[in-house]
Design brief:
Blueprint lengths: L2 E6 L4 H15 L6 E6 L6 H10 L8 E2 L8 H11 L4 E8 L2 H13 L1 E8 L2 E8 L1 H18 L3
Parallel strand pairs: 1-2, 2-3
Antiparallel strand pairs: 4-6, 5-6
Length: 152
């Protein structure tokens, strides 16, 4: 996960500082990585832009300066978000279809992306992408299902 804090760079510096400070306080210490995007850069001269950026450097180090109006900085923002997000791992798991297995598949729909389920006979094969810890947990859930299903 990542958090993008978007603030209006063109607003007066005291208001910009107040909003950035409020965002930091709201996020607290325990949050996903935060990226600050300072929007409406197109409304400021180069000198005013430098002045506003210098005034918030302590609250928004390394912000991405953007303009939603003309597209400035949006590619950089997209790249920064992509670099911040954890890498996803592809996995494929096969389970016998039971109520517990369907519960696990439902859980995967909530926790993973690009979930594809194929049914063949009494088995379901689930292909998905997820954070490594989700893949690890899914494998453990499937292993537990197999242990429950195997004869004692």
């Amino acid at each position: 996960d990542a958090v993008v804090v978007v603030a209006d760079l063109a607003q007066p510096v005291p208001e910009l500082r107040r909003r950035l400070r409020t965002a930091r306080e709201t996020l607290g210490e325990d949050h996903p990585p935060a990226i600050t995007a300072l929007n409406k850069a197109d409304r400021l001269s180069a000198a005013d832009r430098r002045e506003h950026l210098a005034a918030v450097d302590d609250l928004a180090p390394e912000p991405v300066v953007i303009s939603a109006l003309d597209g400035e900085g949006l590619a950089e923002l997209q790249d920064r978000i992509a670099a911040t997000l954890p890498a996803l791992e592809r996995a494929k798991l096969t389970v016998e279809v039971t109520d517990d297995a369907m519960s696990t598949i439902s859980w995967l729909h909530d926790e993973a992306v690009d979930v594809e389920v194929r049914y063949e006979g009494t088995a379901a094969t689930v292909a998905f992408e997820a954070k490594p810890q989700v893949v690890k947990r899914a494998r453990a859930k499937v292993e537990a299902l197999r242990e429950e299903q195997s004869p004692a």
